[in-house]
From TrEMBL:
Lineage: Bacteria, Pseudomonadati, Pseudomonadota, Gammaproteobacteria, Chromatiales
Organism in which the protein naturally occurs: Candidatus Sedimenticola endophacoides
Keywords, sorted A to Z: Hydrolase, Magnesium, Multifunctional enzyme, Nucleotidyltransferase, Repeat, Transferase
Protein name as annotated: Bifunctional uridylyltransferase/uridylyl-removing enzyme
Catalytic function, reaction form: [protein-PII]-L-tyrosine + UTP = [protein-PII]-uridylyl-L-tyrosine + diphosphate; [protein-PII]-uridylyl-L-tyrosine + H2O = [protein-PII]-L-tyrosine + UMP + H(+); guanosine 3',5'-bis(diphosphate) + H2O = GDP + diphosphate + H(+)
Residue ranges annotated for the ACT domain, each copy included: 699-782, 808-889
């Protein structure tokens, strides 16, 4: 096979004829690498290519070794690790052990240094260790990783007898007996899984290290070699640990992951095992996936990856349980304890009574998960039963789904007080959930090519159910007390779990996934004998699952009419309770790292306002004047209690717009009024920073004489300080002053907490505002890598809000540093006044809402003004496209 890469005879002849060895070896490596690339592109099996590259490296290393070291040198060149397995990808590590015998000459060190330098000079990145036999045994005995490398070792050159002594000295009878070795490697796997949060579906998985990656196969191989002395995974079939079909699945999974890794190394030109956004599009094209009405090619490629990882992860789980029984328990299992006529427990694990249980009683395929919920003392399912589930899950067909017993079992699983999340996850791992709900199969492993959704759709769905379950468990009350209180009031918690299961089930099918999913949910609920009321409620929740999030983040919820329309669409307090919990769980589970106190406050305030509207009665909505009067009365009460003259407050309030009182709570109005009344004009600008518990962030409050570009300057400074602006409230008095309130979060999503950081923010802004002339409003911050791979055209839309005497501008653009600063400069250039802003970042997209007027505080009417804003914004933002990105807003 090596002849496909290198003419060995010609190489040896050139070497013996006196040609300089350095260019000869370097050229051989380069020619071999290019030949491998062409073979890969021509579709040569990757299983052949990884071994072919190992053969090439074998040949060159042996030639160099035997050319440099005297024949009689008592030293051996040994391949270890992946190279020892004879598997090398284009940029894989080349790990070597140079084993020194008792008679190694004193001059060997000098020769070895020369040899290793030669390896580097010809372009081989070699990892090496030089040890005596005693040193190898000592190191391997204290480090299971070193022991693992030696298990996979392979002699390249040197005395066979010396290598044999090494194998004997590190055998299970000497160091790391197979039970200790298995426990150590199993612990390593658990630690590795924890590093990746135990999930297969990270957006940028590591093809080698992530759960379901190549390391899972290697883990199996190490145990097989250590315990059984087997050389290949196929021997697992002979030992009856794998069926022939399972072995085929294992090899097919390995072959696919090898192809991905091989392609990654060729694409990047380095040892890169992460499937980053940087490479996903190119890989999808290389693997033949194209865009169509069913989705993007990149999403199809990643779904193929995730489904492969899921299959591999299932096999890994089953085999490790079998190994545990054989290696740790040494097949000494406790006597079985009957649970019912189909199941029994043995040594803490659930198993079937006999191998024909699922054939005789197919409903047991669902009953298994109900039993696991009802018996929390069980640690898991025995491997032989997992295999039978996999073997007979095809029995879950239309006839099975139509069985009243099956429907009752499934609903009972959702109604249990404990274990719902665990067992739905187990159902997904074993492939049962997708068999029972066929539409669920479409979302298994389905990713969405954006930065908003951090997990595949099936993983996200199960995370929502996990979040909902935590609302029902007392020990988690501290996380979301209000959610726990509401969950306790729900008459039927299983309805919200059904809504969660179906809320995204239609993604990737074309059309509106909310409407399609609602239809699926309605059919499912009716088939499962839910009442028409309950069926309609679940369907409505699926259809409207985005309503609350969109309203909270993209609409002016300080406007009583927005609250009224939202409450009217909800219709009843019970629907509001269900929708609120579903929304909180959905937003938290989309990307848990981006859930923060601000988002929590947005949804909480909308829920409370809508609840009040529903209890008051939709026929008797709150009017703007009533809201303002109530807030002013509350603020006056606070001011009077602190010794302030209400008359002075009234005088100040008369200079403000009605929007100011709608947008702020009475506590915020009282605090800001005190700050303004305490400040003489000579003390301006007034800049204050405080934590706002009600708004879920830190408020940066500015009181100053109005000036052009103030919004642009302030947002630019906050951005440069590394703060994310999530809300902006701007009110300009008719006496020429402006009150600006920005809600900001640190980059980790938390409010400003350090007093030194508070001082830094306040002094930086105040110093800049004291400058009489400022023109440099640029923001320079590092562009996050991920954002570079997503681009959308800038879009500006306008909606008139004559009832509030303003125009609403909606901006859709790539997120980037300084975006709000650029928008502010565009407003200044066009003579536009900003009164309020709702700032939302959805993955890599900025979806911001601006409430604007002309200089006379009127809605925009002149077409030239609309054209001016759109032209200015597009010119500024599109000109920055090459350097876009960032989280500062």
């Amino acid at each position: 096979m090596l002849d496909k890469l290198l003419d060995r005879e010609a190489f040896r002849q050139a070497l013996s004829s006196g040609e300089p060895p350095l260019p000869l070896f370097r050229d051989a490596l380069g020619q071999g690498a290019e030949a491998l690339r062409l073979l890969f592109e021509q579709g040569e099996p990757v299983t052949d290519l990884v071994r072919l590259r190992a053969n090439l490296i074998d040949f060159l290393l042996i030639e160099a070794w035997e050319r440099t070291l005297p024949y009689q040198a008592d030293a051996a060149l040994i391949a270890v690790g992946g190279y020892g397995r004879g598997e090398l990808h284009p940029r894989s590590d080349i790990d070597l052990l140079i084993l020194l015998g008792d008679q190694a000459p004193d001059t060997l060190d000098e020769r070895l240094a020369e040899l290793l330098t030669f390896f580097w000079d010809i372009g081989l990145e070699v990892g090496h260790s030089v040890r005596t036999l005693e040193q190898c045994v000592e190191s391997a005995g204290g480090d299971v990783t070193i022991a693992t490398n030696l298990i996979e070792s392979r002699l390249l050159s040197g005395p066979r007898e010396l290598y044999t002594r090494l194998k004997q000295a590190t055998a299970p009878g000497r160091i790391w007996p197979s039970d200790r070795f298995f426990e150590a490697k199993w612990s390593e796997q658990r630690e590795r899984y924890a590093k990746y949060e135990g999930t297969i579906s990270n957006l940028e998985p590591n093809v080698k290290e992530s759960p379901g990656g190549l390391r899972d196969i290697q883990m199996i191989g190490w145990v097989v070699k250590r315990h059984f002395g087997a050389e290949t995974l196929h021997e697992l079939v002979a030992h009856e640990f794998l069926t022939p079909d399972e072995y085929r699945q294992l090899m097919e999974s390995q072959e696919f992951l090898w192809r991905v890794r091989f392609a990654l190394h060729l694409l990047t030109g380095r040892h890169e095992d992460r499937i980053l956004f940087d490479y996903q599009l190119a890989l999808a094209e290389q693997f033949g996936h194209t865009d169509d009405e069913n989705g993007l090619g990149v999403e199809k490629f990643m779904q193929e990856y995730y489904r492969t990882a899921i299959r591999l992860n299932r096999l890994n789980e089953m085999l490790l349980q079998l190994f545990q029984e054989v290696i740790l328990l040494k097949c000494h299992l406790d006597p079985p304890k009957a649970i019912n006529r189909r199941f029994q427990s043995r040594s803490g694990f659930l198993e079937v009574i006999h191998d024909r249980v699922f054939i005789n009683t197919p409903l047991a395929l669902l009953e298994l998960f109900l039993i696991m919920e009802q018996h929390p003392e069980l640690q898991g399912v025995r491997a032989n039963t997992i295999r039978l589930v996999r073997q007979y899950r095809h029995l879950i067909d239309d006839r099975f789904r139509a069985d009243l017993g099956a429907r009752s079992l499934f609903m009972e699983i959702l109604r249990q007080p404990d274990g719902i999340t665990h067992e739905l996850r187990r159902m997904n791992r074993y492939g049962i959930l997708a068999r029972y709900i066929p539409a669920f199969n479409n979302i298994v492993g389905r990713m969405q090519y954006d930065l908003f959704h951090a997990f595949t759709v099936d993983e996200h769905t199960l995370l929502i159910i996990r979040a909902l379950r935590r609302f029902a468990i007392e020990k988690h009350r501290a996380e979301s007390p209000m959610c726990n209180d509401i969950m306790e009031r729900l008459p039927k918690q299983e309805l919200i779990y059904l809504a969660a299961l179906f809320h995204d089930i239609a993604k990737g099918r074309g059309g509106d996934h909310s409407i399609l999913g609602a239809a699926d949910a309605l059919t499912f609920c009716r088939l499962h004998n839910l009442s028409e009321y309950d069926s309609q409620l679940v369907s409505w929740l699926v259809e409207k699952h985005l309503l609350m999030s969109i309203t909270a983040q993209r609409m002016d919820t300080s406007d009583p009419r927005v609250i009224y329309e939202f409450a009217r669409e909800i219709g009843s307090p019970i629907r509001l309770d269900y929708l609120y919990l579903l929304t909180v769980a959905d937003v938290r589970s989309t990307d848990p790292k981006k859930w923060n106190s601000w988002k929590s406050a947005l949804l909480r305030d909308l829920y409370l306002a809508a609840k009040q509207a529903l209890l008051r009665g939709l026929q008797n909505p709150l009017e703007r004047d009533e809201v303002i009067q109530n807030k002013q009365a509350g603020a006056r009460h606070l001011l009077r209690a602190d010794g302030y003259d209400p008359a002075l407050a009234n005088e100040h309030w008369l200079t403000l717009s009605m929007d100011y009182f709608l947008q702020n709570t009475w506590e915020e109005i009282a605090w800001q009024t005190k700050m303004v009344l305490n400040t003489e004009e000579g003390g301006l600008p007034l800049v204050l920073v405080r934590k706002s518990n009600t708004r879920g962030g830190s408020e940066v409050f500015i009181y100053i004489r109005d000036r052009d570009n103030l919004f642009a300057l302030t947002t630019g400074l906050l951005d440069q300080l590394g703060l994310n602006i999530v809300d902006a409230r701007i009110d300009t008095t008719h006496t020429g002053f402006t009150l600006n309130s920005y809600l900001v979060l640190e980059e980790d999503g938390e409010p400003i907490s350090d007093i030194g950081r508070v001082d830094e923010v306040r002094e930086t802004i105040r110093e800049a505002l004291l400058t009489s002339d400022f023109t440099d409003l640029s923001v320079s911050r590092r562009v996050p890598r991920r954002l570079k791979h997503f681009s959308i055209p800038t879009r500006v839309d306008f909606v008139q809000d004559f009832g509030n005497q303003r125009t609403i501008m909606k901006l859709l653009a790539d997120d980037r540093p300084g975006l709000l600063c650029q928008v502010g400069q565009a407003f200044t250039a066009c003579g536009i006044r900003l009164t309020n802003a709702k700032i939302a970042t959805i993955g890599a997209e900025a979806r911001d809402i601006f409430f604007i007027t002309d200089r006379q505080d009127r809605p925009l009417k002149d077409p030239a003004q609309f054209d001016c804003i759109e032209e200015q914004i597009k010119r500024r933002l599109d000109a920055e496209q090459p350097s876009r990105g960032g989280t500062g807003r």
